[in-house]
Design goal:
The chain is built from 13 helices and seven strands. The protein starts with 5 loop residues before the first helix and ends in a 9-residue tail after the last strand. The chain folds into two domains: 93 residues, no CATH class; 198 residues, Rossmann fold (3-Layer(aba) Sandwich). α2 crosses α3, α2 crosses α5 and α4 crosses α5. β4, α8 and β5 form a beta-alpha-beta unit. The protein has 357 residues and is α/β, with parallel strands linked by helices.
């Protein structure tokens, strides 16, 4: 493949000759991470191919449909995707979290920047040695810790505790809505979050708090699952019960009246048991009950300028769950989208929005 940019071609030659899963070098990987954002942001051909091959690997969008007569895969980009996946799993036991971190880094370049992570905790060597982050704050939500413990006691406790302390990291235990009480205004270059925004109780307030602590020119990047926009994505809000041999997909999307009917039809008769079951489905603080449309509205109407709103949709999910789709359609007119399984947002804080209009 010929690429017009000499810098890009040099980078691809480096990937081709210096990076190899069979003879892996951490020093070469650090060099890859150091150079990736420059090439990604300076060469649109590289950027489009890089993103396309992630969709190809994840079987998403047009890239996810492989037609026998069309060959669109470029081996040097497939190699990068495979390397990123392998490094995340082998060194950190991370899958989509590591993928999204590298995609975020490619877009923003976190080297020598201050980073705030909401709802997670990244390892010290990854942050400070591999990516070169200058300072790091992570937010762990007491609400989420309690919710994890209620599902499984072995999941209780903090994520941060497994990484240990570091002079350049700080952990804050608060809900995302309250970040402003702990982080100085306009002090953070970039905000990163994976699999968390679906758990934030008051997302508009959380985005406002993030905006306040972001520097001008700083970004917010998040990847999460809009739970109430997926027939299968209840995220633990549907409890297990011996009356259900398998989880009743879509029950969380029915109206409360039809939810109750479904439980009674399954043989759950005790009113208190039904009440406790439906309380878990509908009223627990975590996860939130936002629909996809709510997320889109909240993000686009926040103070941030929108760089990216990327949905991961399974357009054929209705063929997999036809009975459940029909059941929800009959029950709840408020549910429009049951196929969005992932949502990637990239937001920018601008000082003078009108200058770009």
């Amino acid at each position: 493949m010929r690429v017009t940019s000499e810098e890009t071609q040099n980078f691809l030659d480096f990937v081709d000759h210096e990076l190899d899963l069979q003879n892996f070098s951490l020093d070469s990987w650090k060099e890859y991470l150091k150079r990736l954002p420059t090439v990604y942001n300076n060469d649109v051909t590289f950027r489009l191919l890089f993103d396309w091959h992630w969709n190809l690997a994840l079987k998403q969008g047009r890239a996810g449909v492989r037609l026998p007569s069309v060959h669109l895969e470029v081996s040097i980009f497939t190699k990068q995707v495979e390397l990123i996946q392998a490094v995340g799993e082998y060194f950190y036991h991370l899958t989509y979290q590591y993928r999204e971190l590298i995609l975020f880094h490619a877009r923003t370049n976190v080297r020598n920047k201050s980073l705030l992570e909401i709802g997670g905790s990244l390892p010290n060597d990854l942050l400070f040695d591999h990516l070169g982050v200058r300072s790091y704050i992570n937010i762990e939500s007491p609400d989420y810790i309690d919710a994890r413990s209620s599902i499984d006691m072995s999941l209780g406790g903090t994520i941060t505790s497994k990484h240990g302390e570091h002079e350049r990291r700080r952990t804050i235990f608060c809900n995302a809505e309250d970040i402003g009480e702990h982080v100085l205004p306009e002090s953070i270059d970039h905000i990163f979050s994976v699999a968390c925004f679906e758990h934030i109780y008051d997302l508009p307030a959380a985005l406002q708090a993030c905006y306040a602590c972001n520097k001008f020119g700083g970004t917010l990047y998040s990847y999460f699952a809009p739970i109430y926009s997926c027939i299968t994505g209840d995220h633990g809000s549907i409890p297990t019960h011996d009356k259900f041999q398998e989880k009743p997909h879509g029950l969380h999307l029915l109206t409360p009246v039809d939810q109750r009917k479904k439980l009674i039809k399954a043989g759950i008769k005790d009113p208190m048991e039904i009440q406790n079951f439906l309380g878990k489905v509908n009223f627990d603080r975590v996860p939130n009950r936002l629909l996809y449309d709510d997320y889109e509205r909240i993000c686009t109407e926040s103070l941030y300028y929108v760089l990216e709103l990327d949905r991961q949709d399974d357009y054929n999910l209705s063929k997999v769950f036809p009975r459940q789709f029909a059941e929800v359609r009959r029950s709840n007119l408020n549910i429009n989208n049951m196929m969005t399984s992932g949502f990637r947002i990239n937001l920018l804080k601008l000082q003078a929005l009108q200058h770009i209009m």
